[in-house]
Amino acid sequence: MMTLAVGSGGIPKMCSDPAPPAEQQCKEVSSETDTKGKRLSDGTALPGPWQLMEHSIDHYLAASPDRPIIVAYGATWTLSSKQQWHKLFSEKVTNELHRWGGLCLIRDLSENPESVKTELAKFDRTALPLTVIYDPHRKEWFPMPTVFTEDQLVKALSSRQHNQEEQSNAGKPTTRSETKSE
Fold first, then answer.
1. Main-chain phi, psi angles of 54, to 5 degrees
2. At CB < 8 A and 24+ separation, what contacts does 88-95 make?
3. Are residues 140 and 132 in contact, defined by beta-carbon separation less than 8 angstroms?
4. What is the mean pLDDT of residues 90-106?
5. What is the mean pLDDT of the chain?
6. Basic and acidic residues: which segments have biased composition (predicted)?
């Protein structure tokens, strides 16, 4: 999957995913680059790290088993989905998602309403919108509340990041400078 970024002088660049932002390889592209994969069904452009979910959850887990994932399920015909996506696309959340380094997927169910029940049943949910966060170290999905604030999402991402750091440091010897003196 390729995503667009803006390089120096405003020149668009194509970035490969699913590598975290710091590891993405970018190359300059012409202004005619197809951005269809970066738009919701109503034409809304997806910002920053977001990309449309084009495969099953299992596909993304198999491709990046150790990478955190956030998936936002919704449909452009529901006001609550649009409100949730507005929060997800905010500058505050986008900045946190870049720092977090996870795979950020939007599952737009607007054009396939029959699949809503099937998609949401995987998480024991029945209504849109739904945002879930995958913690690769615990191998678990964590659903966000149906209604959440930008701050709640940033906190949830930070706690998942903290869990990853703890798992990464588990079993490593502690140096003297890392111990607390009493």
1. -110, -5
2. 88/50, 88/131, 88/153, 89/46, 89/47, 89/48, 89/50, 90/150, 92/150, 92/154, 93/150, 93/153, 93/154, 94/47, 94/48, 94/49
3. no
4. 92
5. 75
6. 25-41
Between CA 14 and CA 3 the distance in angstroms is 6
Superfamily for domain range 33-169: Glutaredoxin (3.40.30.10)
- Give the whole-angstrom CA distance, residue 178 versus residue 139: 28
Tokens matching residue 171: 């079993």
Q: Give the pLDDT score at 60.
A: 93
DSSP 8-state code for residue 65: T
Whether residue 64 contacts residue 128, with contact meaning beta carbons closer than 8 Å, is answered with no
Whole-structure pTM value: 0.69
Q: How many helices (H) and strands (E) does the chain have?
A: 5, 8
pLDDT digits (tens, 9 = 90+) for 21-48: 333 333 332 223 344 458 898 888 898 8
Where are the domains positioned within the chain?
A: 33-169
Q: What are the tens digits of pLDDT across the range 136-149?
A: 989 999 999 989 99
Q: If we measure between CA atoms, which residue out of 10, 93, 1, 8 comes closest to residue 47?
A: 93
pLDDT mean over 48-55: 90
